[in-house]
Protein: DUF2142 domain-containing protein
Amino acid sequence: MSSTRRRVILFGIALAVVQSVWILAVPPFRASDEFDHVYRAAGVASGQWLLDQPAVDGRGLYVDIPADIVRAASAQCESLDYPGPDNCRPAQVTPEGRWRVATAAGPYNPVFYAVVGTAARPFAGDAALYVMRGVGAALCLVVVLAALAVALSQRPGRWERLGLLVALTPVVTFSTAIPAPNGLEMAAGLLTWCSLLAVARERRPDLVGWYLAAGAAGVALLGSVRMLGPLWLALICLVVLVVGGTGPWRRLWGRHRGGLVLAAGAGTAGVMWGAVWVVVSRWYAVEETGAGRPADLAVLLLRQSFTWVMQLTAAFPFRDVPAPLAVYPTVMVLVVTAVLVAVRRGSPRERCAIVVAVLLAVIVPVALTVVTVDRQGVVWQGRYLSAFVVGIVPLCGHVLDRTRWAPWEGGRLSLIAAVMVAGVYSACIHRVVASEELRGRVDPELDWAHLPPVVLSVAAAAAIVGCAAALLWSGPGRRQWTAPDRPARDERDSAGTRTAV
Structure:
């Protein structure tokens, strides 16, 4: 078995354990808008793809689903302050015995929901929810492992491999364990990043066909599962072009024109399907709250910027529920160190690309909030950025590998970083389970069967250590530094400024 395949399998097992811990740590229907997504999945599984009847006393559109799912979700739904009665209780009982309830996920693209909802049809109530969580997690796991296989086939060095681990923040893995398309969008973003960079780096011409196929899948998923996907796709393509220029793509066009056309066609078809669905379902027609423009908009945006960073790192089960305070500086130390060192040591193109990526991650939420705050208030959530920023730290890690940063201390530093990530996960899981236990003691209707928080937090930390070991351990007698040098063809190129991708 090849080293890459062994790493991917071991990483997949460990990441599946992390996802399983999240599935067990969050009470049924407790995750952000989870009941909305479960209602949508149950409706799509019964053939209700396009919903068009607005709710009278609740959020979203009406859908007819099995009564047992609504009964199971009602306690958690009614414990929240934003759903209406029609979201938590039936507005009507159909002649077939199904309950008509409102779901805010009514306009969302139905393909993801068709998969998780169909798998859960034989089950009822909480069991149906857990099946949806498991199937959604498996879909995301497959996409993440495809991205990992692409990245590892490039024989990256220590820091890029560590960057892949750091990129999978607690919010990302939490999102992959919930039956909502957000996690699949994040995984697709990582696959798109890895595939496009693999093509641009031109290290493995024998695997170009595989990279194009993986890139087409990533582009199709990223561009269709959620409405902001095409924006993230455009930004990823922009950064990749800044890093590598147009040269690799011109050479690819000359050598693999047919494969490039097929891959571009498949990816474009996925994006077009997403665009068609947005128009048909009127997904863009969001409800206006008439909030009005705040008088201190600049102060609001500054405050929200810090909030978005926290939400991007760790906030569950809802965006306004923070993780333990120590989690945020721990993650920021890893990310900021990677970015600053990469900007300092990178080539002009690499510096420009990283700076552009960071600026876009700041500007896009601010710009979209400025445009929509008058009509909707502040609706942006930091996790929405994950599909884009998930590729920034691995990109920085590649620069650190190429420039041989910390060649002697790297093993010790990467071990410390892996332990920090494991500690972050342990703290997050423990906080979620302990706080939900408290809610269950206050309101017995919200209690649920679960493992003790210590058991789940230790399991999460051990699984993250397993992920790190799969990525970083080279085996006895193996050299730790595996980042390849610039391809020989680039060394022979005598035209203009040459920049390693």
Remarks:
- The chain is about 65% helix and 0% strand.
- Residues 476-501 have pLDDT under 50 and may be disordered.
- Residues 410-442 form the longest helix (33 residues).
- Strands lie at 61-65, 92-93, 99-103.
